[in-house]
UniProtKB/TrEMBL annotation:
InterPro entries: CBS_dom (IPR000644), CBS_dom_sf (IPR046342), Cl-channel_core (IPR014743), ClC (IPR001807). The chain crosses the membrane at residues 59-85, 137-159, 179-199, 211-227, 239-263, 316-334, 354-372, 409-428, 435-457, 477-494, 501-524. One of its GO terms (cellular component) is Golgi apparatus. Coiled coil: none annotated. It comes from Rhizoctonia solani. One of its GO terms (molecular function) is voltage-gated chloride channel activity. This is Chloride channel protein. Keywords: CBS domain, Chloride, Ion transport, Membrane, Transmembrane, Transmembrane helix, Transport. CDD domains: ClC_3_like. It holds the Pfam family CBS. It is found in: Membrane.
């Protein structure tokens, strides 16, 4: 689809609607909203008070009661489904097939062995070690392939937009891009079911990012059911922004982190009341999640770490090493992931998505099964890596066994490397996939390995000068928190988030006393990652698809360039003559050019600007004035009012914008970019004493900011048409 092609439908009684692939006109949408609000408030008597209140009540109904609560329930039961699908790959509960291992073994005292959960070999009464290993690995691999294959079939057959994480598309939509199919009921259903299947298969992916997509689908569906909002794209995006924050709140049990995620990563909340709605929606979703409490934990913290464990100044050095690793590994993961995506798009793999999913799942399962840390579900792995050793609890795969320290270190590093490679390829296949949890797992394994090394060093040399601040008795090094630092650093390197990431990690672990080390880790990893490119994983995918997303946080430097060096010059601009344009000529102009608007000129003198849809509407209204609906093709059209009564002509001046946004050609290019970032116009015309000299569009500015990204538009359907200069 050519984004310069007009995607506007005027069939709704003159009210502007958009088709997929368009970008909304923020100025018009805001104007419609202001008119609507004024109309309600200007009603006489009690109606002028009640109607605005009812209007706001419907908004809060959609944002809070429906979206917040429903997203909380969806997140809770997705957790249950993912846990069950993952657990039955290794065994089943003896007294109920639909119990996962946690539910099957509930009610046991600490350290008590669970006899109710049986491996498949135990369930079938197999005693042979060889047959047991063969059966367990066979079921483990076959169920994984069945899960992921089913997810791929659902996506390919019913909802192609349900694949991947969805956050890049959500960012583009909130920035004004129109992609209604991405938020359809079918997409919601396939995304939810496919996400559970894909995560349960053991692929190196997570469900946290896709929950943002799920929550926005929920909000969009109910938005479309409430007639008051329908058609207002600006209001819709405010609702979606609140829903996106609720999705993060449910994914991590982090309501405040969800709001900050929307502020930092989704580039939202230019208005305070939008942030307030997002906060209330996120809190309501988190409260619903905790009230549901499907795993009977009694709290919202997903991976609680040992609170109150002191940290020493000398630990900042290994934490800095982990931070540098997070930045380097994060940049490497982004580079590998983008390379894999481009290769997939331009190779035979693109035509065989199901085969790719099945093969990668089989490879992942066969690689993971022999390694205990890779065989476990990522959520269980991360939870145990964050936890400190406790003699009253079972030892997680010998992680706390001092005699196997070097074996554990080797396995942890091996797991980290394998997961990095698998995640780089898996994140982009045609299944629902998030990248948060795999990234956390990669960093946590490296962090735990570093913690075990430091702990072993302290045990071997407790009197060394570096450990002089440690108490002579008791534990000095807590490897679990090293895993937290590694996870935060890796997330920072991949997403390039800062404040929101610190808050999410704090709410995720409850580690209030360790916020400062987490802040340092995130800060250093971002600095290191930025050396290799400032785009996080989501911005990289936006650029890959060529979505018209204009970030307001990018700091552009023009190297002394002016607008004249980048604008489309006057001789290449398709214009309309203000005095002498026939109906036939205008219709031919619309047929032969797909630009979304045209400057109207008198010679070189700028008269105004008319959008494509308004020009189409004006011509259509002329047809209604004739009995047979056929406007004379040679009728003259004027955009400055009728000037000669001797012959019939059509006055189209009411459709003209007589004061479009204008700048001088000599203005610094940096100022032009900043103007687009702050005002978000569709285009800017460059004039000199009223004479048209050139123009730039929002898409041209987006293209300008992406010049340093070598793979921009690599996944676009028709890359050559994505950024054609025009209006």
């Amino acid at each position: 689809m050519n984004p310069w092609e007009s995607q506007v439908d005027l069939s709704m009684g003159g009210r502007r609607t958009y088709r997929d692939g368009a970008t909304i006109d923020w100025t018009e949408e805001e104007a419609v909203e202001r008119i609507h609000t004024y109309t309600l408030r200007s009603q006489p008597g009690l109606r002028g008070i009640v109607l605005p209140l009812m209007d706001q009540a419907r908004l809060w109904l959609v944002v809070l009661i429906i979206t917040g609560i429903l997203v909380g329930f969806i997140g809770a039961w997705l957790d249950v489904l993912v846990a069950w699908l993952g657990d039955i790959r290794t065994g089943r509960c003896s007294y109920g097939f639909f119990y996962n291992e946690n539910s099957c073994c509930s009610g046991l005292d600490a350290g008590e062995e669970c006899n109710e959960w049986n491996t498949w070999s135990e369930y079938f009464g197999i005693r042979s070690i060889a047959v047991t290993s063969l059966l367990q690995s066979f079921i483990y691999v076959i169920l994984a392939i069945a899960y992921s294959g089913s997810a791929a079939i659902l996506v390919q057959s019913y909802a192609p937009y349900a694949f991947h994480t969805g956050i890049p598309e959500i960012k583009a939509i909130l920035n004004g891009y129109v992609l209604d199919l991405f938020l359809s009921p079918w997409t919601l259903l396939v995304k939810g079911v496919g996400l559970a299947l894909a995560v349960g298969s053991g692929l190196s992916l997570g469900k946290e990012g896709p929950l943002v997509h799920v929550s926005c689908c929920v909000a969009s569906i109910f938005y479309n059911l409430v007639s008051r909002f329908k058609g207002n794209q600006a209001q819709k995006r405010r609702i979606l922004s609140a829903a996106a924050s609720a999705g993060v709140a449910v994914a991590f049990g982090s309501p405040l982190g969800g709001v900050l995620f929307g502020l930092e990563e989704l580039d939202l909340f230019a208005r305070a009341h939008v942030m307030w709605r997002a906060f209330v929606c996120a809190v309501l979703a988190a409260v619903t999640l905790q009230w549901t409490d499907v795993f009977a934990t009694g709290n919202l913290v997903l991976f609680r770490v040992t609170e109150g464990t002191p940290w020493k100044g000398f630990e900042l050095f290994p934490w800095m090493v982990l931070s540098v690793f997070g930045g380097l590994a994060g940049a490497l993961l982004i580079r590998l992931n983008i390379t894999a995506a481009v290769h997939r798009h331009h190779s035979w793999i693109r035509d065989w998505p199901l085969m790719e999913v099945v093969c990668v799942t089989a490879f992942t399962s066969l690689l993971s099964y022999p390694i205990a840390f890779m065989r476990a579900q990522s959520s269980n792995l991360v939870g145990n890596l964050f936890a400190e050793c406790d003699p009253t609890k079972p030892d997680y795969h010998g992680l706390c066994n001092a005699s196997s320290m070097w074996q554990n270190i080797f396995n942890l590093i091996l797991t980290s490397g394998f997961k990095l490679g698998l995640t780089a390829w898996t994140f982009g296949m045609k299944v629902p996939a998030g990248i948060f949890l795999p990234t956390i797992a990669i960093g946590a394994t490296m962090g735990r390995a570093m913690g075990i090394i430091m702990q072993g060093w302290h045990r071997a040399h407790p009197t060394a000068w570096i450990f002089s601040s440690c108490a002579p008795e008791g534990q000095c090094i807590f490897p679990g928190f090293y895993a937290v630092i590694g996870a935060a650093a890796m997330l920072g390197g991949v997403t390039r988030m800062t404040i929101s990431l610190v808050v999410i990690m704090f709410e995720l672990t409850g580690a209030l006393s360790h916020v400062l080390p987490i802040m340092i880790a995130v800060m250093v990893s971002k600095w290191v990652g930025d050396v290799f490119g400032k785009e996080g994983i989501y911005d990289a995918w936006i650029a890959l698809h060529g979505y018209p997303f204009l970030s307001t946080t990018v700091d552009f430097r023009d190297q002394g360039e002016t607008a004249a060096s980048r604008m489309l010059r006057r001789e290449y601009i398709v214009t309309i003559n203000a005095h002498h344009s026939t109906v036939e000529g205008l219709e031919h102009l619309l047929r032969t050019h797909t630009y979304r608007g045209f400057p109207v000129v008198d010679g070189d003198q700028l008269v105004g600007y008319i959008t494509r849809d308004k020009l189409q509407g004006a011509i259509a209204s002329l047809s209604e004035q004739y009995p047979n609906g056929a406007t004379p093709s040679d009728m003259n059209c004027t955009f400055v009012g009728p000037h000669d009564s001797s012959y019939e002509e059509a006055d189209l001046s009411s459709s003209l914008d007589p004061a479009p946004m204008q700048l001088r050609p000599a203005v610094p290019l940096q100022v032009v970019v900043s103007f687009f970032q702050k005002m978000s116009p569709q285009c800017v015309l460059f004039t000199n004493k009223g004479h048209l000299r050139g123009m730039m569009t929002k898409r041209d500015v987006v293209n300008l900011l992406r010049e340093r990204f070598e793979n921009a538009h690599a996944l676009a359907e028709r890359p050559e048409t994505i950024f054609t200069t025009g209006a």
